[in-house]
Amino acid sequence: xxxxxxxxxxxxxxxxxxxxxxxxxxxxxxxxxxxxxxxxxxxxxxxxxxxxxxxxxxxxxxxxxxxxxxxxxxxxxxxxxxxxxxxxxxxxxxxxxxxxxxxxxxxxxxxxxxxxxxxxxxxxxxxxxxxxxxxxxxxxxxxxxxx
Length: 147
Fold this sequence. Notes:
The protein has helices spanning 6-16, 24-32, 40-52, 95-105, 121-125, 141-144, and strands spanning 57-59, 67-69, 76-80, 86-89, 115-118. By secondary structure, it is of the alpha+beta class.
């Protein structure tokens, strides 16, 4: 287990303060408001360490930066294919899915992940330009009021 530091505690607090599954850059911007000398490298190292220890969850979504989830309980996600936003789905995890999959394939199932994909309300109104998959330059309304 990594040693306790103010930086590590603040980074964990920032991740747990939001339900939006932030990127390392987002965590860095928020944490620097409290610790101006904090480096981006320190944020990345601590996020990686916290994820390896199971304190937070690292979420990889194709073509977008990794995101981090302070909720390590079993739950599903929904991801916007336009901007990469990831949110928790308010649905119960169904253990029958694992039982049926295990029986059908003769596997001992250890768990599963489900990610629903679509377009968030902002990306529905303003889809990304053709040939790109990046809406990160545009701020979502929820992010604007947090600034």
